[in-house]
Amino acid sequence: MSNVIEIPFETTLLVRDTCLCLHVQRAARALARRFDEALRPLELTNGQFSLMMSLNRPEPAAMGPVATLLAIDQTTLTAALKPLTRRGWVTILPNPRDRRARLLSLTPSGKAVLAAAVPIWKVTHAEVETRLPDGNADRLRRDLLALS
């Protein structure tokens, strides 16, 4: 005799149609693919663009705040930095105030790639905003920020 509990198919449809997590994940994947395709000529992914943009600041950035901004852990950040450092776009240096900590900064070639990516990002971003049904990107940003 089996004690398998059957979940009604109606529950599957309810989750499919109403689950915010599912819908946000689907939208995030679709957006990621769109930006990846747009940035492909620069051999840059949307994640790399976001990471490099987070390093576009007057002073080198500590890893902790960058990881927090990108909503990733430091291990994931370290892995994401590897291809960027191999390409010579990012440098990782010891923090002079704490030799165990690391500081991240864009190299001149990294800044050049980022500068080439910004116009692509602007065009792609504008296209995405026009696809919103009510055209209210600010509302969507506020709602997503509230969830994060």
Automatic annotation (TrEMBL):
Keywords: DNA-binding
Coiled-coil regions, chain positions: none
Residue ranges of every copy of the HTH marR-type domain listed in the record: 17-148
Family annotation (SUPFAM superfamilies): Winged helix' DNA-binding domain
UniProt superkingdom: Bacteria
InterPro entries: HTH_MarR-typ (IPR000835), MarR/SlyA-like (IPR039422), WH-like_DNA-bd_sf (IPR036388), WH_DNA-bd_sf (IPR036390)
Keyword Cell membrane found: no
SMART domains in the cross-refs: HTH_MARR
Protein's name according to its UniProt entry: DNA-binding MarR family transcriptional regulator
